[in-house]
Amino acid sequence: MRVPALLLALLTAGCAQTAGTPSAGTTPSSGAASNSPAASPNTALSASGDFAPDATQAIVYNRKLVPEGARASILVESESESGKTRSSLVVEGFLSQRTYGAHLHTMPCGAKPDDAGPHYQHRAGKATAKNEIWLDFTTDGTGAASTAARNPWLLTGDSLPRSLVIHAQRTKTAPAKAGMAGDRVACLTLT
Ligand SMILES: [Cu+2]
């Protein structure tokens, strides 16, 4: 259970930067927006899972790049007070010292890599780290990594990201290839 502990540490660090954010007590396993107090319009999505052979929430498409034992935890929080969305990702058990691309996508994970649909975008159009949620990570010598993204807009209830897709390569930013990151190697459905 090292990943949740790591994630909690990460989240605690994140909360320290935002005085008064009532997000303590949110845990990766406790589900979706219902974590938020009824009075708060904040939105939270999370997921935590092992990329095991029989998993349905965490699906692997390339076992060479996502070995058995790999796992990931993600938390995405929109804070109406700041108008920002913060996303944190912690992984372990991946190949060591390797960069993977990672983005939030529009559909839940499925048996086929493309089931997760295109990238989630704030406004339809540009494939940029500002308009989408990118969480590329580079693993350490043990195959672990943590990363975070901050976007200057809020998630809206009628259009939420549904999955985290992990790709084989770092996300490209050159105009003709912006947002591309190679094959989809794993997917984690958000709740
Ligand atoms: Cu992607």
Structural overview:
The protein is mainly beta and 191 residues long. The chain has a single domain, classed as Superoxide dismutase, copper/zinc binding domain (Immunoglobulin-like). Helix content is 8%, strand content 29%. It has one helix and nine strands; from the N terminus they run αβββββββββ. The chain has one helix at residues 2-16, and strands at residues 43-50, 58-60, 71-79, 84-92, 99-105, 137-138, 145-151, 163-167, 184-189. A hairpin with a 4-residue loop joins β3 (71-79) and β4. The longest helix is centred in the first third of the chain and has 15 residues, at 2-16. The strands form two sheets. It has a five-stranded antiparallel beta sheet with strand order 2-9-8-5-6, with no helix packed on it. Strands 1-3-4-7 form a four-stranded antiparallel beta sheet, with helices on one face. Residues 8-40 have low confidence and may be disordered. It starts with a helix and ends with a strand. It is globular. Bound molecules: copper (II) ion. Copper (II) ion is lined by residues 103, 105, 119, 165, 167, 181.
